[in-house]
Amino acid sequence: MQSRSLVWLGLAVGSTVGGFIPELWGGNLLSFSSIVLTAVGGIAGIWVGYKITQNY
Question: Which domain holds residue 7?
Answer without folding.
Answer: 3-55
